[in-house]
Amino acid sequence: MINVGLIGFGYWGPNLARNFNVNPDLELAAICDFSADRLKTAGRFYPQATLYDTVEDFFKNTDLDVIAVSTPVASHYGLAKSALDSGRHVWVEKPMTETVAHRPRNSLNWPTGRTGSCWWITPLFIPVP
Fold first, then answer.
1. Would you give the DSSP letter of residue 122?
2. pTM (two decimals)
3. What is the extent of the structural domain holding 114?
4. 128, part of any domain
């Protein structure tokens, strides 16, 4: 079982939570959002998930294998970097960074040269009628 932590339960986060939750290989173990109302909703739908209102407390959860980032673009880089630096894999909404200067050197290694964690980027999709 892969334990997933989700940061952001606003616009797209509920869709990700639903999909993580129905995957038999994943456990939606934690959800982080700064909005008390969003966390209340998340708690109703995903009672198994630990809820956090700060990323500092969220990152203290050492049981998480993957951090999914579904926040405004301006925060993608910092949150993904924190997740990778803490030894977790990262699944991030597109675009992965706000500027080209923040992009990782390749898809598997963070710019520090540390290996062992991967980026997953949400691909664009085209609806099929």
1. P
2. 0.82
3. 2-121
4. no
